[in-house]
Design goal:
By secondary structure, the chain is mainly α. The chain has a domain of 113 residues. It contains 10 helices and no strands.
Amino acid sequence: MIPAGYDLRGMVNKQSDDKAPNEAYYTHGAATLALCEAYSMTKDRRLKKAAEGAVRFIVNSQDPSGGGWRYNPQEPGSTSVTAVQVMALMAAKKAGIAVPNSVFKGVMHYLDSVQVDGEGRYGYEIRKKQYAGARTAMALLCRMYLGWSREDGDLRAGVKLLDKAGPYENLYSSYFATQVMKNWGGDEWGRWNTRLRDDLIARQEILGPAKGSWKPRTGAIHAKQGGRLLTTALAMLTLEVYYRYEPLLPKEAVSEVINSK
């Protein structure tokens, strides 16, 4: 059954060994995010109608018991798909588009269900709760969006894990992790940004027909399918994080830093 709303998933088909059409909800979430941000900037009424419809589709397709999203409407969620939908919904709220509070409560329930150990580690889904840095970054970003402060839950421990690991070769992962580290700020952000910024700038093509772009760096499925275009988009979005978004957390007081050591 297709949920009510404006469906932006495009062609729902199978392009990998996965049994489900796993690209569809990433597409819808990213398109909804773009629509909501465009409406927020322009206040164009034509965009508002489309954005509201796309948000309604996300709301109506949330897993009613688990609180997440995955590859098909209302099925048990995965952390990566859920994170993209949360970003879209938060952009909707910022644009003045109504999102039921129950949706965000459901997301918090989902995030609790994929915690690995309460030490900042998160997994891909309830059935696959093994720790992964990329999924952890996505989960932590959702926690920040949904109101966690520095001392809530395992947020501080999760940031410490990302700081220790450093930026990822997978730019899809680094995009989410960079937002987490920027929101956190302090020395952790300084270390992260210096490494990632310099690396991305050094790897940008400067000659030939591909000038200005970035080539895929890993064999991940999204890099294979999205190629140079998606890789370039992720590189640019990552480089824009520090001035495109306002930090979600207030600056950490010096006394708090001292007392935490």
